[in-house]
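Following up on my earlier message about adenine. Here are the inputs again, as you asked, copied directly from the submission form:
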Amino acid sequence: MQLDVVTLFPDWFDWFAGQRHVRNVLAEGHELRTLGLREHTPLTGGQVDDTPFGGGAGMVLRVDVMDAALRAHYGEDPTELRLRRRVIALTPGGRMLDDAYVDELAAEPALTLLCGRYEGFDERIVQHLASDTLSVGRYVLSGGELAAMVVADAVLRKLPGALGHADSAVEESFSTALEGHPEYPHYTRPARHRGWEVPEVLLSGHHEEIRQWRRARSIERGGA
Ligand code: ADE
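Thanks, got it. Here's what our run produced:
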C-alpha cells in the first residue's frame, strides 16, 4: 500500500513512521509519504488558509492550495485522481471510522489522507477533490493529523507482516472473527496477584473450553 498524508505538519509523522509495526510494514515494501501543504502553496509567504466568507471565527484551508498541492504531487488533475485513488478528507462530520471501514481501506492499494487545520476545509475540497470523508469521532480535534495517525495505525496493522504474530489482527475486537463483538479479556502471569485470580478455565489447557469461554465473554461485552 502507498499511504500519503497531506498536512501542514509533515514532521509530526516522523515519530509515527518510527514505530515498530509501521517499520515492519515499510520493510515489506509498503510506503508512508507526507506531502507538506506549505511547500506547495502558490500563495506568498506560505499562506494556506483564509478567513471564512460570511464571517465567523477561525481560518479555513483554501481549495486552491489543496488543488495545487495534489496536482504537483500526483501530476494530474485531482478531480481525475479521486476517481482512481481513495482521497479521504478527515473531518469530524465525516463517515465514522469503524473496523469495517478500516478493512475496506486496508484492501486499497493506495490512499491519500487530507488533514484540515483550524476551522477545517473549504467545502469545495470535500466536494471536488476528495472521494471520501472520515471522522474518528464526533468531537473536534485541532487538525486532521492525529486523526490521520489513527487511520494509518488502524490500517497498517492489518497488513501482513505488521504484527509479530500473524493471527494477532484477525481475532481482535470488532473483527468478523469475533462476529463484530469486542475482544474477550486477556490475562498473563502472575496467575494470582493480591488475591485476584485468573479464570480457572484459562489455566486448564482445554482448548475447546477456552474457545467457548472466550466467545461467551466476547458476546457478553457486546453491548458495552
Ligand atoms: N479533524 C478534526 N477533528 C476530526 C475528527 N474528529 N475526525 C477526523 N478529522 C478531524
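One observation from looking it over: The beta strands are 2-7, 31-36, 49-50, 60-61, 86-90, 110-115, 132-134, 192-193, 196-197. Hope that helps, and feel free to reply on this thread.
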